[in-house]
């Protein structure tokens, strides 16, 4: 598999990363054995970048990755960990904590759960409004000096925060939602990252399955599934969004690819500094996603895709309003 350096200073990673979030309840129940088999299949296929968060299943996701890596060459995996989101035993979300002492505590637990002596990329999941980004990055920079962390990343922050963070320590990559129907980063955030030599790890490239070609209006979701309350999946919006998927399906047919492969290949085609993270939690989904790497979209394909799914054509926001309101990346909406 092709590899790229993440930003000017980041690690070399596979052209596709595996996001493990869905293996820990964010999209309803997942099968543990299948999740581990999916991580193994990804590593065997040459995927090196594994993305997690300490709050995905309140540690469950890190322990799962730790188990999957047992007996494997740890250094062949690039483990990206997000921290800072606070939860309670019922799984409710309780804001963010990026205070220096909290970060040192979070990283100690993550290293234990993952069973590793360092984390490759460590990043705050969101901007903590009560802590200057300089303090957060400065604390992770100390962890880099101490050998517990190799690179520093960011997630869902806007241009000003990116610049302030990069002034403290080199930033390998910004993790942002980016897909055919989530193109908010194109105006200011992507150009800022490019100017500073920061890579992008793009999540939600299938808009959490909505534009995968497999989603149907009546697909059942569990109460704990993010999609149960995500605006784009709600009645009144989902119909419009699935029309866009059908428009994409006819283009996919012309390229002998699936809808999911076209959606992933479109993100990959936006630049070599952008690495799509796919949220496969089953081997068949992973195999389909890997097929996107063999798909090269021509200029004509890209034009046809833009016509089928014009920028801003999705119905509904990418997160519920209450969450968008706290996202630094959405500050200039
Ligand atoms: N930084 C952040 O704020 C943030 C936020 C969210 C996620 N992330 C990271 O990004 C990763 C990817 O995000 P995501 O899971 O929302 O992205 P996604 O790839 O857009 O959606 C994944 C979902 O799409 C469905 N799907 C259908 N066909 C698929 C295929 N061929 N390959 C993969 N999935 C397919 C699956 O649902 P079914 O299994 O139900 O079919 C899967 O759970 C996460 O795992 C997480 O590590 C980061």
The rounded Rg comes to 19 Å
CATH superfamily: NADP-dependent oxidoreductase domain
Overall, the morphology is: globular
Structural class determined from secondary elements = alpha/beta
Number of strands: 13
User: Helix count, per DSSP?
Assistant: 12
In spatial order, strands of the major sheet run 9-8-5-4-3-13-12-11-10
Summed over residues and divided by their number, the pLDDT gives a mean of 97
* Terminal-residue CA separation: 37 Å
Unreliable stretches (pLDDT < 50, length at least 5) are none
Fraction of residues in helix: 25-40%
Provide the succession of SSEs: EEEHEHEEEHEHEEHEHEHHHEHHH
By CATH, the topology is: TIM Barrel
Q: Percent of residues in beta strands?
A: 15-25%
* Main sheet specs: 9 strands, parallel
Oligomer: single chain
Looking at this protein, list some descriptive labels.
333 residues; alpha/beta; TIM Barrel; 9-stranded parallel β-sheet; two-stranded antiparallel sheet; 37% helix; 16% strand; globular; binds NADP nicotinamide-adenine-dinucleotide phosphate; oxidoreductase activity; Aryl-alcohol dehydrogenase-like predicted oxidoreductase
